[in-house]
TrEMBL record:
<feature type="domain" description="M23ase beta-sheet core">
    <location>
        <begin position="226"/>
        <end position="321"/>
    </location>
</feature>
<dbReference type="GO" id="GO:0004222">
    <property type="term" value="F:metalloendopeptidase activity"/>
</dbReference>
<dbReference type="InterPro" id="IPR011055">
    <property type="entry name" value="Dup_hybrid_motif"/>
</dbReference>
<protein>
    <submittedName>
        <fullName>M23 family metallopeptidase</fullName>
    </submittedName>
</protein>
<keyword id="KW-0732">Signal</keyword>
<dbReference type="InterPro" id="IPR016047">
    <property type="entry name" value="M23ase_b-sheet_dom"/>
</dbReference>
<feature type="region of interest" description="Disordered">
    <location>
        <begin position="298"/>
        <end position="332"/>
    </location>
</feature>
<dbReference type="Pfam" id="PF01551">
    <property type="entry name" value="Peptidase_M23"/>
</dbReference>
<dbReference type="InterPro" id="IPR050570">
    <property type="entry name" value="Cell_wall_metabolism_enzyme"/>
</dbReference>
Amino acid sequence: MKILVGSLVGGAALVGSTAALLPLAMMTSMGVSDVALAPVSSCTVDASGLTVDDLDTEQLKNAATIIGVAVSLKVPPRGQAIAIATAMQESGLRNLAYGDRDSLGLFQQRPSQGWGSPSEVRDPARAASAFFGGPASPVKNGGLLSVKGWQDMELWEAAQAVQRSGFPTAYAKWEGLANDVVTKLSGATSTCEPLAVGSWTLPISTGYTLTSGFGSRVHPITGEVRFHAGLDMAAPTGTPVRAAAAGEVTWAGVVSGYGNLVRIRHAGNIETYYGHLSAFVVRAGQQVQAGDLIGKVGSTGNSTGPHLHFEVRHNGEPTNPDPFLREKGLKP
């Protein structure tokens, strides 16, 4: 059984690999960063022949995903066991489409409490990343890595600090199984692909203001709370918009909501989106380099004023552009 575990969140690759997320020596010049990237974008974990008592294939797959995320974030085995025990108690290590009130997924995270949209909390890799938290967290809720002294707590205490369950000590009964899962899966073979390499640059170099970040927000037009999949960079109409990295333009046209949109596919299954443009100067199939002019700031589509809506996606899933770019030495 080969399990692809990985979904890039905040520049930290969510993978089942023994490769650690190493500190990067970052150098920037004129908004462009050339960084030898240590993280990987995704890994295929070969769990063939591995068995864990009392776990079926579905549960083992979800456990492998959680551990892959943990390894990419440099969470030690103790933290991995806490996450596995938590998921066992909350969902039986199953990606549930139901739960108490609006609770969903492996960790029974609640969209109404800031854990993400219903589809996001049912993404096992993203849910695991949110549980662990830390700088790469896709949510603002505090995760395990934000709990002071979690390494020295009883397993149930650490889990409860994140989950805030009505039955805090219930996590303790899964500690033995969780330790067994971590021990067995830590020996699984993994094959990893490198994250997109080369120069990266901010899509707008200067003269912009960040007006909206990644995550849940009150939509400026509808007034509803919705998930915002990128960064909004307000700038005067006509401000140059540049490719964030080398790649191939896969779309240059009108998309509902985005208005005039350019999409660029980069190495490592990374895509960048540039929305609300007043004009674009590239076409689908065109190769571009980091810093190449691709369009100009505008206010097309669902927009309240001139700005660039910038997204980063990995395997089609939105990831927070802010820490992703900071990982490359760039500060949006």
